[in-house]
Every structure is written in structure tokens, then in C-alpha cells.
Write a structure and sequence with these properties.
The protein contains eleven helices and no strands. By secondary structure, the chain is an all-alpha fold. Helix 1 packs across helix 11. The longest helix is centred in the C-terminal third of the chain and has 30 residues. The relative contact order is 0.14. The model has no long low-confidence stretch (mean pLDDT 88).
């Protein structure tokens, strides 16, 4: 009798019948990373443009959220790691072809800058804040002259961080729903939109609120454009991608996709912002909060649905 040995990758826990290794900490991390990138991008942009007096909320108040978002996102990422104590190995090498390497180094650069940015504005945001230690005031005075230099550094860093959150998924070629080049620009645009939403919530004048309402409206339009072309890309791709997109277009994630992301997270906020810009009385916090919810839902959807899709041909 001739014996034959068959080796198969099937029946592997957390891999078959579908990938099940990325849980809620990963989409939370992707959302908070994009949110911090959007907030810091606008703070840096308007600082470089010399418009600090016109948009104080975006430059002084909203950036207080950024370091908190980064830290919470990193804690969520650490929570998901199997070997937490080995995270430092990401910093023992630089691999230009690795999205994770890019993300690790960009976060290492952005985290201290985000804390410094918040630190030099704390007394302006909280006028009654009284530090008892003289050296803290001296430290604040030392870093303030470098504010514009920090802004110039934050501009490219925030863009890279925002786009990295999407490229991190699209680099997984084995997952048909993730294997789409538009994910990077889509997540960047979504991150900028959520950043603009925070700026609307922290705006200190009607001018600032309307300015970021217009910016967010533009970003929502671009985001819808990217989503439409992402769907078109799936349908024009191979059979596995056409099968994968059915999760969004008639499958188990369809209601979530169209209700919480397309309708509630994009179209409805855009309509409210148009009404507000036309002079109607709309509570600005409503579209801003909906944009934030939609941005978070987009990450959770793509991470969960992407793990279900696979190549079987």
C-alpha cells in the first residue's frame, strides 16, 4: 500500500473558517490615531498660515484631545499584543516597506510633540491654572518659541499617520476586502473629517464653527467619492473581491454600512451642515458627533468584515 501525506492549512484556530485575531482594540486604535492626526494637522496648518487669532479652538483647545487619543489608542494596541514586552523590537530596525515600521516611528515622533503642543497652551485654555513649581513655567517659556517649528513637523507627520491607518489594512493582500489602494486615502480623509468635527465642538466663534463646517462638508464629499470608487474597484476586481464586497452590498454588514456609515455618518451630517451654512438654526454639535460616530464605525466595519474575507481559489 502506498501512503500519501496531505498537509493543509485548514482547521487552524482563529484562522479557519476565517481570520479572527483582531478584536475591538485594533479599530479603536485606528480611529483614535486618525482622529489625533486630523486634530494636529489643522492645528499645525493654521499655525503655519498665521491664523491663530481666528481659530483659537483648533490651535489651543482641540489639540488637548490629541495626546489623550494617542495614549488611549496605544494602550488599546498594547492590550491586543500577544507579547507586550517585545513592542520595543519595532524600534530596532527601520523597514521602509513595512507599514507597521512607519506607524511605530511616526507615533514615536508625534507623541512627544502632541504633549508639548498641549503643554504650551494649557495656561491659555485654563487661565486659573497655577503651577507651584517655577521650573514648569521656565519649561513652557523654553518651548513656546519653537511652536511654528513643531507645526512644520506635525504637517507631514499627521498626514503619514492618517494614511498609515488605512495602509496598515491594505498591506494584507491575503484579505480581499482590505486589498484596496483607496483605503489609505479614505482613512486619511476620514481622520481629517473627525478632526474637523472636534474643531467644530471646540470652536470659540461662529466664524470658526462655520469654517470647519465648510471644511468638513468638503471632506465628507471626498470621503463619499473614495467609498464609491472603492466599491467600484471591488466589482471590477477578481472573483474573490467581488465576493468580498457582497458583505457590504447585500450581506451581513449591509445595514451597518449604509445606516451607520453612509447615512448617519456622512450624508445626514452633510445635510445638517449645508442647512447651517445656509442660515438655518442647527445645533453644530449634532453633525460633529455623527461624523465621529461614523468615523469609528468605518474602522470597526472594515476590520471585522475584512477578516471574514479570504482567498479560496
Amino acid at each position: 500500500m502506498k501512503e500519501e501525506l496531505f498537509i493543509s492549512g485548514r482547521n487552524i484556530p482563529n484562522v479557519d473558517p476565517h481570520l479572527h485575531i483582531w478584536h475591538w482594540p485594533i479599530p479603536l486604535y485606528l480611529f483614535l490615531g486618525g482622529l489625533a492626526a486630523g486634530i494636529l494637522f489643522f492645528a499645525a496648518l493654521f499655525t503655519v498660515l498665521g491664523k491663530e487669532d481666528k481659530v483659537p479652538g483648533a490651535i489651543k483647545y482641540a489639540p488637548l484631545v490629541a495626546p489623550i487619543a494617542i495614549v488611549v489608542g496605544l494602550v488599546a494596541l498594547m492590550f491586543d499584543l500577544t507579547h507586550v514586552l517585545y513592542f520595543w523590537r519595532l524600534y530596532t530596525t527601520i523597514r521602509l516597506e513595512s507599514p507597521m515600521s512607519w506607524g511605530a516611528w511616526v507615533l514615536m515622533a508625534m507623541t512627544p510633540i502632541s504633549f508639548l503642543w498641549a503643554f504650551i497652551h494649557l495656561r491659555e485654555v485654563f487661565p486659573k491654572l497655577d503651577w507651584k513649581l517655577k521650573w514648569i513655567y521656565e519649561l513652557e517659556s523654553f518651548f513656546k518659541p519653537y511652536k511654528k517649528l513643531m507645526a512644520w513637523a506635525l504637517l507631514p507627520l499627521s498626514i503619514v499617520l492618517g494614511i498609515y491607518t488605512g495602509i496598515l489594512l491594505s498591506a494584507f493582500n491575503a484579505r480581499p476586502l482590505w486589498n484596496n489602494a483607496i483605503l489609505g486615502p479614505l482613512f486619511l480623509t476620514s481622520g481629517l473629517s473627525t478632526g474637523a468635527a472636534i474643531n467644530i465642538l471646540t470652536a470659540k466663534s461662529s466664524y470658526e464653527r462655520h469654517l470647519f463646517g465648510k471644511i468638513d462638508l468638503l471632506l465628507i464629499t471626498v470621503e463619499l467619492f473614495f467609498i464609491i470608487h472603492m466599491i467600484m474597484g471591488y466589482y471590477s476586481g477578481p472573483a474573490v473581491q467581488r465576493e468580498a464586497v457582497q458583505l457590504l452590498m447585500g450581506g451581513e454588514f449591509t445595514v451597518f454600512f449604509f445606516v451607520f456609515i453612509i447615512s448617519m455618518g456622512l450624508i445626514f451630517p452633510a445635510i445638517l451642515e449645508i442647512f447651517e451654512l445656509m442660515g438655518a438654526k442647527v445645533w453644530a454639535a449634532i453633525p460633529a458627533i455623527l461624523v465621529l460616530i461614523g468615523g469609528a464605525c468605518l474602522r470597526f466595519l472594515m476590520v471585522d468584515a475584512g477578516q471574514i474575507t479570504r482567498y479560496l481559489y
